[in-house]
Specification:
- This protein has 10 helices and 12 strands.
- The protein is α/β, with parallel strands linked by helices.
- The protein has 2 domains: 3-100 and 240-267, Rossmann fold, CATH 3.40.50.10860; 103-237, NAD(P)-binding Rossmann-like Domain (Rossmann fold), CATH 3.40.50.720.
C-alpha cells in the first residue's frame, strides 16, 4: 500500500496540491497517495487524528486551519514557532511535528526562479498576517539591506517587530512610505482576494525591479495593475511560491526534493 498524504482546508475544492504532489511523485519515482479533505470548523482536530490513525504520514494545512494545526503539534520548527502557524504536519515517532514552508517557498521563488536576490536590497512587505509571519525569518536570513513592513494595524506589525527584534526590520504606516523607493515589493495583504488595492501612496512601486503578489491564479490584480502602470520592471504572482513550498514539504516527508520548473510552468496563468 502506498504512503498516504493529504491537504486539509475549508474550502478545499480549488486546491492544486493533489495535482502538484502527484506530479512530484511521478517525476521522482515515489509511491504515494495524496488526497484533499474538506475541513470541519468544529472537528478539524478530530479529522487530523483520524487521518493519522488510519495510517496517514503527513498533511498540508491551508486556510483557515494553520494556527490550529500549530496548536496540535508536539514538536515544531523555528519557522513554525515564529509564525505560530503550520502549513505542514508529519507524523513520526509517535509525535505530531509541525513545519511552515510558506516563507522559504516564497524566498526560493523570488531568489532562484525569478533571479531577484534579497541580499543588500531594499524590500517592502505589505501586510502582517500569517503569510508574513512565515516569511519574515527567511527574508531576514537572506540579508536584505533593509526590510520594511507596512500594515494598517500598527499594533500587529509592532508585535512582529518586537518578537523578531532584528536591526534590519522596520515598521511603517502606509502614508509614511510616500517618496520612498524599494527594489522588491511583496503584497501579502488580503486586498487582492476582494479586488482591492493596498493603500499605497502613488509612486512607491515605480522604482521597484519586482512587484510580487502572493495571491495566484487571479491574473492582473489591482496591485499588479498599479505596479505595471507605475513602470515596475517585473511582475509575478504566487504560483511559484505555491509550488516551492509544496516541494519543501515533499522533501521533508520523502527525503527527495523534486524539480519545480515544469510544475510552475504548467500552473502559471499569464498576467494579462
Amino acid at each position: 500500500m502506498s504512503d498516504r498524504y493529504a491537504v486539509i482546508g475549508r474550502p478545499i475544492s480549488h486546491t492544486k496540491s493533489p495535482l502538484i504532489h502527484g506530479l512530484f511523485a511521478q517525476a521522482s519515482g515515489q509511491a504515494l497517495e495524496y488526497g484533499a479533505i474538506e475541513g470541519s470548523l468544529e472537528g478539524f482536530e478530530a479529522q487530523v487524528q483520524q487521518f493519522r490513525n488510519e495510517g496517514g504520514r503527513g498533511m498540508n494545512i491551508t486556510a483557515p486551519f494553520k494556527l490550529r494545526a500549530f496548536e496540535l503539534a508536539e514538536r515544531c520548527s523555528e519557522r513554525a514557532q515564529l509564525a505560530r502557524a503550520a502549513n505542514a504536519l508529519k507524523f513520526e515517532d509517535g509525535l505530531v511535528v509541525a513545519e511552515n514552508f510558506d516563507g522559504i517557498g516564497l524566498l526560493r521563488d523570488i531568489e532562484e526562479n525569478l533571479g531577484e536576490p534579497l541580499r543588500n536590497r531594499r524590500v517592502l512587505v505589505l501586510g502582517a498576517g500569517g503569510a508574513v509571519r512565515g516569511a519574515l525569518l527567511p527574508f531576514l536570513q537572506a540579508g536584505p539591506g533593509e526590510l520594511v513592513l507596512a500594515n494598517r494595524d500598527m499594533t500587529k506589525a509592532l508585535a512582529l517587530r518586537n518578537e523578531l527584534d532584528h536591526p534590519l526590520l522596520h515598521i511603517r504606516r502606509y502614508e509614511a512610505l510616500q517618496g520612498q523607493t524599494f527594489d522588491i515589493v511583496v503584497n501579502a495583504t488580503s486586498a487582492s482576494l476582494v479586488g482591492e488595492l493596498p493603500p499605497l501612496p502613488g509612486g512607491v512601486l515605480g522604482k521597484a525591479g519586482l512587484a510580487y503578489e502572493l495571491a495566484y491564479g487571479k491574473g492582473l490584480t489591482p496591485f499588479l495593475r498599479q505596479a505595471r502602470e507605475e513602470g515596475v520592471a517585473r511582475l509575478a504572482d504566487g504560483v511559484g511560491m505555491l509550488v516551492e513550498q509544496a516541494a519543501e514539504a515533499f522533501a521533508w516527508w520523502r527525503g527527495v526534493r523534486p524539480a519545480t520548473r515544469a510544475v510552475i510552468d504548467r500552473l502559471t496563468i499569464p498576467l494579462t
